[in-house]
Amino acid sequence: MPDDVTALLLAWSAGSDTAFERLLPLVQGELHRIAQACMRGERAGNSLQATALVNEAYLRLIDTRRVGWHDRAHFLAMSARLMRRVLVDHARSKGYQKRGGGAVRVTLADDVALSQRDEDLVALDEAIHALAAVDSRKAQVVEMRFFGGLSVEETAGVLHVSAETVKRDWRFAKVWLLRRLRGLDDGTGR
Question: What residue segments make up the domains of the chain, in order of their start?
Answer without folding.
Answer: 2-181
